[in-house]
Design a protein that fits this description.
The structure holds two protein chains of two kinds. Chain A is mainly alpha-helical. Chain A has a single domain (about 65-289), classed as MetI-like (MetI-like fold), CATH 1.10.3720.10. Chain A has helices spanning about 5-35, 50-60, 60-90, 100-105, 115-125, 130-140, 150-175, 180-190, 195-205, 205-220, 225-230, 245-250, 255-289; strands at about 35-40, 45-50. A two-stranded antiparallel ribbon of chain A has the order 1-2. In chain A, a hairpin with a 3-residue loop joins strand 1 and strand 2. The longest helix of chain A is centred in the N-terminal third of the chain and has 32 residues, at about 60-90. Chain A is globular. By secondary structure, chain B is an all-alpha fold. Chain B is built from 13 helices and no strands. Chain B is globular. At the A-B interface, helix 1, helix 3, helix 4, helix 5 and helix 7 of A face helix 1, helix 3, helix 4, helix 5 and helix 6 of B.
């Protein structure tokens, strides 16, 4: 292109590049180096202690507990949200009336403020005056939602599913709508069963969208914070202290920056391992299309 | 599916669809009801029909809206979200345009894109402490500007990627003919490319706005009484006031209202926006 100048492309790109380098890379390096120091607010960088912070973390039962419940949380919510989202997308993609209405309703929770959803959950799962136990009452049940460890975990999961299924739904619906008519028509010559069509036409066609949903949701679920925190405050006891809250408390309540930074790095490494695996699958399925 | 369904099958499909509708709407209805229900009736979920079973009231609204921290939180949230959106749009659109329209040779376009994409994977908590220390040093703790800096950082990669894919979809021919007519790079970007990307810009703006509106971890860490946003206000109300159904409901409405309105506007661009355009590469 004749008119393009070499300078212009750097003028366009540099502000963003410098911003990211300054505000992401520098803090990342800074935080990595902090994790090798004994460092508390007020007393500053006291001493270089090598990997001692990491050793402390791996020796702490609290760390293993937090990691365990966070992984449970990720696995349960991501599985449930992907399957439910897929099921709803499949239904809405059928020839139905009021398609737009259902689509809009199923995406409504997508941008609700997570902290507000958690606070709302406090009233829904309130044990004497809440909606959940009122409904449970019809079946003669009275569940200890927020005062028992299992109940608090379950209510967090339920709200998370409510909040994020729409995300899976909207992306998978877009994927299903992208399946070409000719593929359907070809399949219909062979079979009448909508399950068969789902299994052999639709599912392979949306493989890429499915993997994308799982990947994006997993990344988010690992760093979950606002929703369970405002719902349970981490309690009862420590039963719903998920990973980000654990780091937040160590860093900002006890001002133990060294341990906090090391914990954060452990999370980063776990997330990166998971993402690399998923990313490989994603690239393969992208190449296959 | 392009087939007509049999009657019983149809009934089953609609039953499921309606059940899912109820599931999605119930929390909203519950909030609305609690926001207008008199305090004495609040602990009776069964009393659900206004005027018949309870007399709607504005007491919770009066209480919340005359509450200093609520108004302050609302204003802070609006300023921070708008400020973030503005900066992300300016810087992000420029970079997205650069990646879509120019060829970088030293570090290739693809590598730059992957570099920005990799930022999305980063758990924000990893940079929590450095940000706290930096903002303390430059005296921006508990200011809206400080929070805007943080939010721009987390939303910029998204803005760049989505704008890149939007420019990629716009045919390049119009811009080329403008170059032939003697326009320079900046005129082409400003007068030709930007107007063509209008819808994409709007979608990006709305999503970035909703993301910043939602942010809680950094807002909680980096703000105190002065610059606290709505989510921080809600978190502190939760721990100091305990469970006040009416207060919770009003705040929920204030906090979810703006993003919900945006969602309804966004419908058509939503899927693409949320996947950073990855679906239509």
């Amino acid at each position: 292109m004749a008119g393009k100048s070499r300078a212009a492309k750097f003028v366009f790109l540099l502000p963003a590049l410098l911003w990211v380098l300054g505000f992401v890379l520098y803090p990342l390096i800074n935080s990595f180096s902090l994790s090798f120091f004994r460092y508390t607010l007020g007393r500053g960088r006291e001493a270089f202690i090598g990997v001692q912070n990491y050793i402390d973390i791996f020796n702490s039962p609290e760390f293993w507990f937090t990691l365990k419940i966070t992984i449970y949380y990720v696995l349960i919510t991501v599985t449930a949200e992907t399957l439910l989202g897929l099921f709803l997308a499949w239904m809405v993609n059928k020839r139905i009336q009021f398609q737009n209405f259902f689509r809009t309703v199923y995406t409504l929770p997508i941008f609700t403020t997570t902290v507000a959803v958690g606070y709302l959950g406090v009233t829904i799962f309130h044990e004497t005056g809440g909606l959940a136990n009122w409904v449970m009452g019809w079946f003669g049940l009275d569940i200890q939602w927020l005062s028992s460890a299992t109940g608090a975990f379950a209510s967090s999961v339920i709200l998370d599913i409510w909040r994020w299924t729409p995300f899976a739904f909207i992306i998978l619906l877009a994927g299903l709508q992208g399946v070409s008519k000719s593929r359907y028509e070809a399949a219909m010559l062979d079979t009448n069963s909508s399950f068969q069509i789902f299994r052999y036409v639709e599912l392979p066609a949306i493989r890429f969208s499915l993997l994308l949903v799982v990947m994006l949701r997993m990344v988010r679920a690992f760093k979950v914070f606002g929703l369970p925190f405002s719902l349970t405050g981490g309690g009862p006891g420590r039963s719903t202290v998920f990973y980000t809250l654990y780091v937040y408390r160590t860093s900002m309540k006890y001002f133990d920056f060294g341990h906090g930074a090391a914990m954060a790095y452990v999370l980063l490494i776990i997330v990166m391992i998971v993402i690399f695996q998923l990313f490989r699958l994603l690239r393969e399925s992208f190449a296959a299309e | 599916m392009f087939k007509f369904m049999s009657k019983p099958k149809k009934a089953m499909v609609y039953t499921v669809l309606v059940l899912a509708t109820v599931w999605m709407l119930i929390p909203f209805l519950w909030t609305l009801e609690n926001a207008f229900k008199p305090s004495i009736k609040l602990f009776e979920p069964g009393a659900a029909i206004p005027f018949l079973q309870y007399q709607p009231t504005l007491e919770h609204w009066n209480f919340a809206l005359f509450h200093q921290s609520v108004i302050k939180g609302l204003i802070n949230s609006i300023v921070v979200s708008l400020g973030t959106t503005g900066i992300v749009l300016i810087i992000g659109t420029m970079a997205g345009y650069a990646l879509a329209r120019y060829r970088f040779s030293y570090v290739k376009n693809k590598d730059l894109t992957i570099f920005f994409l990799s930022q999305r994977v980063l758990p924000p908590v990893v940079v929590l402490i450095p940000f706290f220390i930096i903002l303390m040093r430059i005296n921006l703790v508990d200011t809206r500007l400080g929070l805007i800096l943080v939010n721009v950082t987390f939303n910029l990669p998204f803005g760049i990627l989505i704008m890149r894919s939007i420019f990629n979809e716009i045919p390049v021919a119009i811009e080329e003919s403008a170059f032939v007519d003697g326009a320079n790079d900046y005129q082409v970007f400003w007068r030709i490319a930007l107007p063509l990307a209008k819808n994409g810009l709007l979608a990006t703006a709305l999503i970035v706005f909703a993301f910043s509106w939602n942010e809680a971890l950094f807002a909680l860490t980096l703000t105190g009484a002065k610059a606290q946003t709505l989510p921080v206000m809600i978190l502190s109300a939760r721990s100091t006031r305990g469970v006040r159904f009416g207060f919770a409901a009003v705040n929920t409405i204030l906090a979810i209202g703006p993003p919900i309105i945006l969602t309804i506007f966004l419908q058509s661009n939503l899927a693409r926006g949320l996947t950073f355009g990855a679906l239509k590469e």
